[in-house]
Amino acid sequence: MDQTLGKFIKKERELLSLTIEEVATKLKVNPATIYHWEHDKKTPNKKHIRAIAELYCVSVKKLISLIK
User: Fold this and answer.
1) Whole-angstrom distance between the N-terminal and C-terminal Cα of the chain?
2) Best CA proximity match to 65, nearest among 17, 13, 4, 24
3) Which homologous superfamily is 5-65 in?
């Protein structure tokens, strides 16, 4: 199965034992936004891509490569 940005975001969140609410607070977004990203219903904008990369200690390039 292909890795998508949403699956990656969810996997990394779970590896860090964070809740959707905790990630939403850290990224200053609504928890529903995290849910939509994790289920590939929406794609984060550039500002949020950078914040996600920083939160999960990965490169922006890695995240962008997962956008389908």
Assistant:
1) 13
2) 4
3) lambda repressor-like DNA-binding domains (1.10.260.40)
Entry pTM: 0.92
pLDDT in tens, 23-63: 999 999 999 999 999 999 999 999 999 999 999 999 999 99
Determine whether 34 is exposed, middle or buried from the number of CB atoms within 10 Å of its CB (0-12, 13-18, 19+): buried
